[in-house]
Amino acid sequence: MWMYLGLLAALFLGLHNLCKKHAVQGNDAFSVLLGTLIAGFLLFLPLFIGSKYYPEELQGIDLFVSGISLKTHGFIFIKAMIMASSWVLAYQALKHLPITIVTPIRSAGPFFTFIGAILIYQERPNFWQWIGFFLIIFSVFLYSRIGKKEGINFKSNKWIYAIIGATFLGASSGLYDKFLIQSLALNPPTLQFWFCTYTMLIIGMVVLITRSTNSNLKGSFKWRWTIPMVGLLLQTADYFYFKALQDPDALIMLLSAIKRSQILIAVVVGGFIFKEQNKRKKLVPLAGILLGVFLILYS
Fold first, then answer.
1. Given CA atoms 78, 84, 89, 93 in this order, what sign does their dihedral have?
2. Could you report the per-residue pLDDT of 210-230, keeping only the tens digit for each?
3. Nearest 5°: CA angle at 77, between 218 and 242?
4. What pTM was estimated for this model as a whole?
5. Chain centroid to CA 66: how far?
6. Deepest of 16, 67, 279, 299, by most Cβ within 10 A of its Cβ?
7. Over the range 228-266, which residues count as b (16 or more CB within 10 Å of their CB) and which as e?
8. Rounded to whole angstroms, how far apart are CA atoms 9 and 83?
9. Residue 220 in contact with residue 95, Cβ under 8 Å?
10. Angle (CA) 163 10 278, round 5°
């Protein structure tokens, strides 16, 4: 069951990436990010309030926001710091790079998760899982060769390093999620509500500082309908992902890889919507990434 929940998370993440690309185009990335977090917070706020007055009803539909200790708040705040840093880097990179380059690099996240799952959680991959992960990494390398034809030099372009840093931090957060869900026994709505709250405050401070120190940012924010959609789609994807992690048999390395199937939507559909270059050539490494994901599932 947890694999199917992972596929649902991938579906909503793919749609989330399309909306995110539209939201940040010609826009202040930090303000867009804050808008998406506010949308996610408002999605869970009624559940938080409702849990105070109708706990049994919300528990019955797995949407109960439970009370947590101060120590647990600290653990969630750490996740908020990790993901806030990852999102700041990712949003800035997405603003300056094609989605068909950004998404495949992000797809290397399972490799970092893969290593962490072995070292931290002692998850043991088999031969085909090894092949699948290295196939994903090789396919990302092929994307870098295609990216040069679009005027993107992977060695000197700072936004490439930004998206790589965002990918590493995102993978670290994924490993941390298993600790929060399984070791601390946090249910998804509780984790998501407080996570949205803390990241909203952190990014709010970033927006306040950047706008007060950079006069060029004044008037640079443009409201678009995709901004709240990014937040709603992300929280929906996270809900299914966290539900999958609640299964004690769930392997974080496999869940991370399953989520990468979102690139089918981002590269194929997104490439046509945003009219990006070399779409056919990008189908080759795309097939490599999908084959890598298939080998992991098959194994």
1. positive
2. 888 877 766 678 889 999 999
3. 105
4. 0.83
5. 24
6. 16
7. bbbbbbbbbbbbbbbbbbbeeebbbbbbbbbbbbbbbbb
8. 17
9. no
10. 55
